Amino acid sequence: MTYTAEQLVAAQKANVETLFDVTTKAFEGVEKLVALNLQVAKTSLAEAAETAQAALAVKDAQEFFALQASLLQPSAEKAAAYSRHVYEIVAGTNAEVGRVAEVTIADSQKKVLSLVDNAVKNAPAGTENAVALVKSAVAAANNAYESVTKAAKQAGEVAEANFQAMTATAVKATQTATKAKRAA
Predict the structure, then answer these.
(1) Which helix or strand (DSSP H or E) is residue 18 part of?
(2) What is the total count of domains within the chain?
(3) Distance (Å, whole) CA 172 – CA 166
(4) pLDDT tens for each residue of 94-125
(5) Strand (E) positions, 4-162?
(6) DSSP characters over 150-182
(7) Distance between CA atoms of 35 and 45, rounded to whole angstroms?
(8) How many whole angstroms separate alpha carbon 175 and alpha carbon 74?
(9) How many CA atoms lie within 13 A of 99 on its CB side?
(10) What is the pLDDT of residues 9-32, one digit of tens each?
(11) Is 114 in contact with 106 (CB distance < 8 Å)?
């Protein structure tokens, strides 16, 4: 099967649209990260000013240590929340790019199968073995792709579960340390 100029132009147009779609998704993720970092910087600056004011108002060492202990737990919780937000942004962007890639690959697979089917219809007599081999190779490639995709999704789910568990453990450890420090 030969492609016409219109088919080639349509294929290139689809590829360019896919590229711009993926690029747009990536920039949206970067915008979200920049907005989050600006918000964190602004909040941190305001909290640093409040902390400096509180530190200047301290009258003795005991009050200073109480101030320090009161700042420890919220800082750990804020760091955990920040990490969660970053992870959510990255995971969301990755999912969007993955979705676009899956659609593009699925479309490419359909086109390859259509091309193989057309080639089979026009194949000369006696090439049945070669045709069967090509079909088998295409099916094997599709199966391999599906296996890799499933494994990648499972790995992402495991990584997310581990991240959530690690964050929860860090926050609990900080809370325990803060309580122990206050009791002492």
Answers:
(1) helix 5-56
(2) 1
(3) 10
(4) 888 888 877 887 777 777 777 767 767 777 77
(5) none
(6) HHHHHHHHHHHHHHHHHHHHHHHHHHHHHHHHH
(7) 15
(8) 9
(9) 9
(10) 777 788 788 888 888 988 999 999
(11) no
